[in-house]
């Protein structure tokens, strides 16, 4: 069923009785050409582009819970292309271009809103670093504008510019940055993949990866064994556990990242604002909630909930930046499991097991990567060659040290860098 304004109108007149389920609920088959482990944003977009760009059809996505129940539905929805180093910047630039056509591509409203992102700076040294970053963004073909203090005040008059510790000197403005509705992105890709014949199998946990003579042959699942010629591990925070099923040890640590939302308010924050020195960032959802977050909980964990010290830290940073936030009531908080790589950059690569691929290491920023990540993993699996915008995301960089990318030295212990 094609969605359109006319369709919504007609369905409204007919009592909304004609809507169909957005995807099928197929039983798993005994064999597929390709099995993707993980029905998050990256797994679903990989399946979609394998079918759409490469004409492959005999594909299953295996999801242990429900589609969109992982990090893709838990993030703070920021979409941007403001990276500095070669290797990352062309990839995220490609991703942002895909975002800009995504709703038309999927015939699905993912509520992509390019409301602009402002990264604040608080010293001359930080301003110089942002000037370099802005020039790199412009050289990449993306957009960047340096704002002085008055330029920021014009856009964000509610900030406390005179705060003692980090007085605001200006900001790097990325007008094409913004937000999207996170779970709609999963649903849109799921619907698109299903329409191209991909089997989306929920409540199907992969419990083992079968190999013979160094080659992958299939997976064991809670719904029985499934044979496959190619298997992709796209399990985000669970990547290390899934890879261990094939005897592999990944350079990944899993940590909790928390986020918060307030009660719905009238429009007040019409940009995404990032206060790096305070480890705080914020935007306002279309429902009116102020959505904000901070840094990682600094211990490795598979619990999708955080700890109180980080709650205190984030609230303090919010109050420092915009005291008005103290008037809003926090509605809820939650956590997601982040797959942190040592250099803050992702991995899209083959593994030493033939036919077995890995997509992980998205750190804080894998939501905005969803389109390009699926595009590039699909390209690698279908053609055997890495896509040119993801050539650096190789697993062996942690062994050889060559081509090591480092946006800002994030990795698992951000506070130690
Ligand atoms: C609080 C928070 C805020 C964030 N904010 C942003 C942001 O503003 N912008 C941004 O770009 N990124 C952000 N991120 C990061 C982003 O959400 C993640 O990097 C990205 O969603 C990870 O990829 P995914 O969508 O495929 O993950 P997921 O949705 O987690 O998908 C992985 C799936 O694999 C499944 N799985 C795991 N093990 C198995 C198994 N054995 N068998 C079958 N299935 C399995 C899981 O159930 C899960 O559904 C944030 C993350 C969090 C937690």
Automatic annotation (TrEMBL):
All residue ranges annotated as the Rhodanese domain in the record: 34-78
Q: Where in the cell is it found?
A: Cytoplasm
Q: Under which EC number(s) is this enzyme classified?
A: 1.5.3.24
Q: Does the keyword Heme apply?
A: no
Tell me which Gene3D superfamilies the record gives. Answer: D-Amino Acid Oxidase, subunit A, domain 2 (3.30.9.10), FAD/NAD(P)-binding domain (3.50.50.60)
A single cellular component GO annotation: cytoplasm
Q: Which GO terms describe its molecular function?
A: nucleotide binding; sarcosine oxidase activity
Say if the entry is tagged with keyword Nucleus: no
Q: Which cofactors, if any, are listed as required?
A: FMN; FAD
Q: Which reaction does it catalyse?
A: sarcosine + (6S)-5,6,7,8-tetrahydrofolate + O2 = (6R)-5,10-methylene-5,6,7,8-tetrahydrofolate + glycine + H2O2; sarcosine + O2 + H2O = formaldehyde + glycine + H2O2
Keywords for this protein: Cytoplasm, FAD, Flavoprotein, FMN, Nucleotide-binding, Oxidoreductase
One biological process GO term for this chain? Answer: tetrahydrofolate metabolic process
What family name appears in the similarity comment?
Answer: Belongs to the SoxB family.
This protein is called Sarcosine oxidase subunit beta
């Amino acid at each position: 069923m094609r969605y359109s304004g006319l369709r919504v109108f007609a369905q409204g007149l007919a009592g909304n009785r004609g809507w169909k389920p957005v995807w099928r609920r197929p039983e798993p088959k005994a064999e597929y050409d390709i099995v993707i482990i993980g029905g998050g944003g990256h797994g679903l977009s990989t399946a979609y582009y394998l079918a759409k760009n490469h004409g492959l059809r005999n594909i299953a996505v295996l999801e242990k819970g429900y589609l969109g129940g992982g990090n893709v539905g838990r993030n703070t929805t920021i979409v941007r292309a403001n990276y500095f180093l070669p290797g990352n910047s062309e990839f995220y630039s490609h991703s942002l271009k895909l975002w800009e056509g995504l709703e038309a591509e999927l015939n699905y409203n993912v509520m992509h809103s390019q409301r602009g992102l402002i990264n604040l700076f608080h010293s001359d040294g930080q301003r110089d670093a942002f000037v370099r970053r802005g020039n790199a963004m412009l050289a990449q073909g993306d957009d960047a504008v340096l704002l002085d203090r008055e330029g920021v005040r014009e856009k964000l008059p509610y900030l406390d510019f005179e705060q003692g510790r980090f007085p605001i000197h200006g900001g790097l403005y990325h007008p094409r940055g913004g937000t999207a509705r996170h779970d709609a992105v999963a649903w849109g890709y799921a619907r698109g993949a299903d329409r191209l014949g991909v089997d989306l199998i929920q409540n199907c946990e992969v419990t083992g990866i079968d190999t013979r003579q160094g080659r992958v042959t299939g997976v064991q699942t809670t719904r029985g064994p499934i044979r496959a010629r190619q298997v992709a591990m796209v399990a985000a925070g669970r990547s290390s556990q899934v890879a261990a099923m094939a005897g592999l040890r990944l350079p990944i640590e899993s940590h909790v990242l928390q986020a918060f939302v307030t009660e719905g308010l009238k429009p007040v924050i019409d940009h995404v604002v990032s206060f790096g020195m305070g480890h705080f960032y914020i935007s306002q959802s279309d429902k009116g909630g102020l959505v904000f977050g901070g840094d990682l909980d600094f211990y490795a964990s598979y619990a999708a909930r955080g700890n109180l010290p980080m709650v205190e830290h984030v609230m303090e940073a919010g109050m420092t930046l915009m005291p008005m936030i103290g008037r809003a009531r926090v509605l809820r908080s939650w956590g997601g499991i982040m797959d942190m790589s040592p250099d803050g950059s992702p991995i899209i690569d083959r593994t030493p097991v033939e036919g077995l691929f890995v997509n992980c290491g998205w750190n804080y920023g894998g939501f905005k990567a969803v389109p390009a990540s699926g595009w590039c993993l699909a390209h690698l699996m279908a053609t055997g060659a890495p896509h040119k915008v993801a050539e650096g995301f190789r697993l062996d960089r942690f062994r050889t040290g060559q081509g090591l990318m480092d946006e800002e030295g994030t990795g698992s212990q951000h506070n130690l860098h």
